[in-house]
Amino acid sequence: MKDTQDHSFSNKMGSKQITFKEGASLNLPLLFQGEHFSFWKKRMEIFIQSIDPGSWNVIIKGNFIPTKEVNGELIMG
């Protein structure tokens, strides 16, 4: 089993520390621990966009399936 590391981040208010497991790197996202969802969500958005900007669009809008009309019928493909 992989060891997890604690990473602390100061919030904008100053003194309170927020601790997340793993993910203080470019290769591994933050592991959500059930608290501070808005902070984790924004970090995940940035992480996903850094890997592939189009991936975030798929998450927000859903996957695009190209279609064309042939003889009045929609064909996926």
Describe the model.
This protein is of the alpha+beta class. The chain has one domain. Helix content is about 30%, strand content about 25%. It contains two helices and four strands; from the N terminus they run E-E-H-H-E-E. The protein has helices at about 35-50, 55-60, and strands spanning about 5-10, 15-20, 65-70, 75. The strands form two sheets. It has a two-stranded antiparallel ribbon. A two-stranded antiparallel sheet has the order 3-4. It is elongated, with a radius of gyration of 19 Å. About 5% of the residues are buried. The model is unreliable at about 1-5 (pLDDT under 50).
What is the C-alpha radius of gyration, as a whole number of Å?
A: 19 Å
What structural class results from the helix and strand content? alpha+beta
Following the backbone from N to C, one meets helices and strands in this order, namely EEHHEE
Strand order of the largest sheet: 1-2
Average pLDDT metric: 75
Q: Spans with pLDDT under 50 lasting ≥5 residues?
A: 1-6
Count of beta strands: 4
**Strand content of the residues, in percent?**
15-25%
Determine the fraction of residues in helical runs and give it as a percent range. Answer: 25-40%
Number of helices: 2
For the report, how would you describe the main beta sheet?
2 strands, antiparallel
Q: Kindly, what is the distance between the CA atoms of the first and last residues, rounded to a whole number of angstroms? A: 41 Å
Q: So what's the overall shape?
A: elongated
**Structural domain tally:** 1
Please, what is the oligomeric state? Answer: single chain
